[in-house]
Specification:
111 residues, 6 helices, 63% helix, mainly alpha
Length: 111
């Protein structure tokens, strides 16, 4: 990661911490105040566009959670109970069997 990218990212974090909307102009203002002169405007525009309409604090607090797919289970999953879990386990076992069957064929990646 270049210094320009890093400086723009930190400037975005500063704006998010203050609860200010992240725009390219505001990022440039922070970078000028910090006396970081070698940042091209494209970096601030890219970061502002990427974070547009997003809650940066929430993004940072959910970095390690990784459980996005589990939340997608709808009301049908609650009604299914353990039956749905059993079906998922069977599907996983079938996938594992398919992966193991490749090894039985006598050739592999490093043979």
């Amino acid at each position: 990661m270049s210094n320009a990218e890093l400086a723009s990212s930190y400037a975005a974090l500063i704006l998010a911490d203050d609860g200010v909307e992240i725009t390219a102009d505001k990022l440039q203002t922070i970078l000028k105040a910090a006396k970081i002169a070698d940042v091209e405007p494209i970096w601030t525009q890219l970061i502002a566009k990427a974070l547009e309409g997003k809650d940066v604090k929430e993004l940072l607090s959910n970095v390690g959670s990784g459980g996005g797919a589990a939340a997608a289970a709808g009301p049908g999953a609650a009604a299914g109970g353990a039956g749905g879990a059993a079906e998922e386990a069977k599907e996983e076992e079938k996938e594992e069997e398919k992966e193991e069957s490749d090894e039985d064929m006598g050739f592999g990646l490093f043979d």
